[in-house]
Amino acid sequence: MFDPLFRWLESSAFSVWMRESDSLFAFPGILAAHTIGLGLLAGLSGAFALRLLGVAKGIPPEAFRRFVPLMWIGLWMNLLTGIALLIGYPTKALTNPVFYLKLGLIAIGLVILRAIFRRTGSAQGEMGITKVLAAALLIAWIATITAGRLLAYTYTRLSVDSLPR
Amino acid sequence: MIPFQVELESALRSFTQVAALMRTNWGWPIAESIHFVGLTLLFGSIAAWDLRLVGMAKHVPIAAFHRLIPFAILGFMINAGSGSFFLMTEPDQYVYNPAFQLKMLCVVLAGINVGLFYLTMFRRVNRLGPGVQGPVLARLNGLVSLALWITVIICGRMITFYRPARCRPGQVIGFIADCIVR
């Protein structure tokens, strides 16, 4: 149904560059940047979640606010590199249910992270609920990473004109 | 170097049970997922620590951030374990791969960097109170660590794009030429 859209995207100059360029800054570089963004966002917020769960009690939870700009950098890096990867292989991603699962998990992770920061900002937050949220954040990120990795193995159509696997 | 690589490859190839497990339908994808979760755990905790060393969140004593290090070690162990499974399954794809070689070099350098930190300045730095900037060498150590781990991630992602030609086990003569020259 969306084949005309996929075909249009795949014939765009940027999409062709993503797939066919020999430059390390094309697909390989963008994929690497996507992984570093993952490390910044999920890694730093994951360390924050571990702190809330009781690890490294010497660090005041507010200290992690200093890392929020880096989490934002990670999020923006991955939004932009993710869009670039999507333009490179639109059919591969958009015909795979796992891709939508990944997007949903990212949304859940971000909502949880925002809720956690709101609670740690105001001192009234009950610690029990914060801990549940922190555990949920770790689960959401682990599920996101797993879904992301599985994209390489679960797609059925690589490009609009390739035969189903 | 070359004979060593050939020996290493055949030694890695002897773990046939691991390879059989990895070649099941879900073996490789699951190991990859675990490797990326380990990456996040390692990078997230080491980055928070390194950034404190460099000078962020100065109001928190360095010693407090040091409590995150066990998670970095856990992440490292998860990745050394899952990573070795890839090597035991497709040894020629790693042993002769320049991206993998550079990745391992950076892991070793990061190890030396952290070793130097513990040998030369850990005790002094870990005693510093809140609001104190670490010495220049400690800041440099954090910066080097960050740069090395980012390079490790980049090189890891590059492995796929520098795959050597597939080698057949047991074919020793002419095999190096086949494997290294595409």
Task: Walk me through what this model shows.
The complex is a heterodimer of chains A (165) and B (182). Chain A is mainly alpha-helical and 165 residues long. Chain A has helices spanning 3-10, 13-20, 27-52, 68-88, 90-94, 97-121, 127-154. Chain A has one domain. The model of chain A has no long low-confidence stretch (mean pLDDT 93). Chain B has one domain (2-180). The two termini of chain B are 19 Å apart. Chain B has helices at residues 2-12, 16-22, 27-54, 62-66, 69-89, 92-95, 98-120, 122-126, 136-158, 175-180. Chain B is mostly helical and 182 residues long. Chains A and B meet through helix 3 and helix 7 of A and helix 3, helix 4 and helix 9 of B.
The largest contact between protein chains, plus residue counts on each side, is: A-B, 37 and 35 residues
User: What is the makeup of the main sheet of chain B?
Assistant: none
Total number of distinct structural domains of chain B: 1
Q: List the secondary-structure elements of chain B in sequence, H or E.
A: HHHHHHHHHH
Give helix and strand order of chain A, one letter per element, not per position.
Answer: HHHHHHH
Structural class of chain B: mainly alpha
TL;DR?
Chain A has 165 residues and is mainly alpha-helical.
Write the layout of secondary structure elements.
The complex is a heterodimer of chains A (165) and B (182).
Chain A: H1 3-10, H2 13-20, H3 27-52, H4 68-88, H5 90-94, H6 97-121, H7 127-154
Helix pairs in contact in A: 2-4, 3-4, 3-7, 6-7
Chain B: H1 2-12, H2 16-22, H3 27-54, H4 62-66, H5 69-89, H6 92-95, H7 98-120, H8 122-126, H9 136-158, H10 175-180
Helix pairs in contact in B: 2-5, 3-5, 3-9, 7-9
